[in-house]
Amino acid sequence: MDAGRPFTISFPVWAVGTHVFRFKDKKITAKRDREDKGLSDRHKEELNLSTNDCSTDIYRDIIADVKAFHKQRTLGCTLLYINEGGYWSPTSDSGKRKRPLDSIHLADGISEAIIADIQEFFDTAEWYADYGVPYRRGYLFHGPPGTGKTSFISAVAGHFDLDICAVNLSDSMMTDEMLRRLMYDAPENSVILLEDVDAAFGDRGEWETEASEEAKERKPTKKGKGKKKTNSSAVKHKVNHNLTLSGLLNAVDGVGSAEGRIIFMTTNYVERLDAALIRPGRIDYRQLFDYATKYQVESMFRRFHRQCTDDEAQTFVQAVFGQLERPQISMAKLQGLFLRHKNRPADVVLSVSLLHE
Domain 96-201+239-288's class? Predict the structure, then answer.
């Protein structure tokens, strides 16, 4: 390789074995080892670099060039990492363009308040250190489906030039130790997203109750009677004890948890969450994402119809709300209406009735 060019390796990324390349006029030997689980396995592996140069500066230069190359390739993009066997891996469609904040239409003042809070968190790292407060920030976004919780997190990540590490707590393979490691080893300059956090524990108690009650009903009496066929719907409820609530709590703010992290949690059912999970210190900022307000409806209309007049905007808002003070219309449903008529914008007002179906 020539000095000054971004660091790349010419052999295929899946080529396990020993390879030789040149970097800044020095011969580097790269040896890559991993478990033999097929080409798709990117989990447990080792890449060892060696050279005859006794100085470690060459390795620092390689790492610096790798980071520079990665930053240049992902400039203007937000990467999404997911869990693959306990290790973070970028998704195949990672590198999507950052989502602009003004593409998310929240109720008046919500977006600005959250952005200001996150900015203050970044600006006060020394304060946390001086007062001995763990340097991390937790946000809980709750409300009906389709109200913009995850979309807003994506826009926030783009605004602050951060990537997203999404954790599926409902994954049957997830364990306490795996979650702890994932939370601790999240890539630099990233936020952690625990989406639909209620799904991890919210129904387990109900499932266990169903299972235990059914077991009692199926238990034979002394005369061999009392047997009952298994209810097919109950069989689908498989209780998974690999991840525990205490494991989640320790991963969020336990002794071994990482600092300098922003954690976002989302849920459609905040009432199902354990109080220990959303107490101050774990969740520092709670925000309701509710059904569309008149402000949001008008804001989205003006975005899709940028040349509209004030009267046209108000006519659309009135058509959406009618005599209702707050119809249960999500922003996702409203956006779907605009997408349906993107080539015939004049028809959008005529199709408002579809929002109430």
Answer: alpha beta
